[in-house]
Amino acid sequence: MTTERLILRRFRASDAPVLAAYRSDPDVARYQSWDAPFPLERAEVAVRNFAASSPTEPGRFQYAIEHAPEQRLIGDVYVLLHDNLLQGEIGFTLASAYQGKGFATEAVAAVLDRLFRVQGLHKVTGECDARNTRSAALMERLGFRREGLLRQQTFIKGEWTDDLLYGLLATEWPG
Question: Are residues 65 and 94 in contact, defined by beta-carbon separation less than 8 angstroms?
């Protein structure tokens, strides 16, 4: 998939060092399930797994976000496609240097457009740490509705955190 500034593509083995680098940034890892640093060996395994999955089969698929003008990996968008192929979950990660410039919104919008218009999904959900106001704002900008707050839902990095739940129906997608 391409947008004005991005290419969303399958991961390649050569992406592992860049994946390890941005996932090793404490600011990027703060609200994520992994710890920083994110070792290169772990990134190599992750990239192999990402490359072996399918965007149209049930399970997790990770899109690499490439900044087209620089031909550089700048983040990723994951989709967990449910067994019924009508529902999915979405998440996103962007390297710090590319945050606040609309890249994540552009990438997630492109993936949502594919999920709703091409793959025919009925609903896509998203979840984030309640303190992650930037991720919550991104989902709201894209039309997601806040559907809930799970108090002290996740024990991560030594603390209990609240999770915000978001949902977007195909009938609400303007894309």
Answer: yes
112-140 burial: b if 16+ Cβ within 10 Å, else e: bebbbeeeebebbbbbbbbebeebbebbe
Surface-to-core class of residue 6, CB atoms within 10 Å of its CB (0-12 exposed, 13-18 middle, 19+ buried): buried
The reported pTM is 0.96
State residue 174's pLDDT score: 87
Which residue ranges make up each domain of the chain? 6-172
- CATH class as words, domain 6-172: alpha beta
Instruction: Note the helical H segments in 9-102.
Output: 16-23, 26-29, 40-52
The two three-digit tokens of residue 54, written as one number: 């399918």
Strand partners, 169: 123
State the pLDDT at residue 132: 97
CA 1 – CA 4 distance, rounded (Å): 10
**Residue whose pair of structure tokens reads 């606040």 in the numeric block:** 100
- pLDDT band, residue 175 (cuts 50/70/90): low
**Average pLDDT over the chain, rounded to whole?**
97
CA dist 130 and 149 (Å) reads: 8
Which residues, including other chains, have CB under 8 Å from residue 52's CB and lie 6 or more apart? none
